[in-house]
Amino acid sequence: MLYNISMTKKKKIITIVSISVSLVLVLTVCLLLVFLLKPQKANTVSVINTGQNIYVKSSVAEGEKTYRFKFVSGDEIKEFDSSSHLFDITNLLWNGDLNFGDNYSVSVCYVDSSGILAGDYSESVNFVAQIKLASPEVSIDEQNLFLNWENIQGADFYFINYYDGNQFVKIKSYETSFELSTIKGGDRNIYVTSASEHEYFLESEKSNTLSVQVIHELLEFDSAFLNSENKTITIYANEFIDEILLTVDGKQYKIYDFDIIQNDGEFEITFSISLIYNSNATFKVSPVGDLYNVFNGEPTLVTLT
User: Fold this and answer.
1) Which pLDDT tens digit goes with each residue over 197-217?
2) In the structure, how many helices (H) and strands (E) does the chain have?
3) What is the pLDDT of residues 2-21, one digit of tens each?
4) Which terminus of the chain faces fewer neighbouring Cβ atoms within 10 Å, N or C?
5) Is 78 helix (H, G, I), strand (E, B) or coil?
6) How far, rounded to the nearest angstrom, does the alpha carbon of residue 34 sit from its chain's CA centroid?
7) How many CB atoms neighbour CB 114 within 10 A?
8) Is the dihedral angle over the CA atoms 173, 177, 181, 187 positive or is it negative?
9) Torsion angles phi and psi, residue 246, rounded to 5
10) Can you list the alpha helix ranges (DSSP code H) found in 38-160?
């Protein structure tokens, strides 16, 4: 009886040892298979910004592999799988899965066809996610009074750009339309760009260019004052003026030579009338129009200071 009990214990020990050895062998084989089947470390990763699209690019893996791109910003880690070594992240940025303006450290690893085994990540590269805004498509209404365009994603405002013959003009607008009669009249080639308050949204390329003939109605002057001591007239206007019509008791003079200063959108215009000054005369001033810039208002009475 004692012999049978002893033999039974020995058999149990041998069985346990055999199972342990088998488990070790199986684990060793599994680890060996993992080591042999694990994809190699990815070589490189790079970022390509084409203006309106941002891609991350890996070196091409051998065999049937997919790609796992890792983005690290501060304590945040995000991973995205791609079947292609060239991965477009533009929609991820617009959708908020990644953030414009954040500084990312990005790396890539290869993943086997089963999606289970992944290799080591490559060395990382840093980039800030910024993009160039899309260009508007500009149209004009049938009466040639308004420019119109659709809202651009990411844009906070727009620039209306044109050359008025003397200088390049860039007008900021928060609307998606622009009244042409508000600018100086003439033949104009006008285009629009979209822009943003955020540094990570870059101003767009120019829109389509429209050739339009602008008719502008000149505004009446806000006010005008005569300094009797130095015999000068000072005019305050809401727009730049090329020429002034001075009326003295019904007699008219065209004034070309004057000083002009712009302060917060208002123009201060000053000129001398010493050669025609008469303390008893009545002085009136008005802007002088032309074929494209028409004045239909009333002359402004000059007030003595």
Assistant:
1) 999 999 999 999 999 999 999
2) 2, 27
3) 555 555 655 555 555 455 54
4) N
5) strand
6) 48
7) 9
8) positive
9) -105, 125
10) 90-95
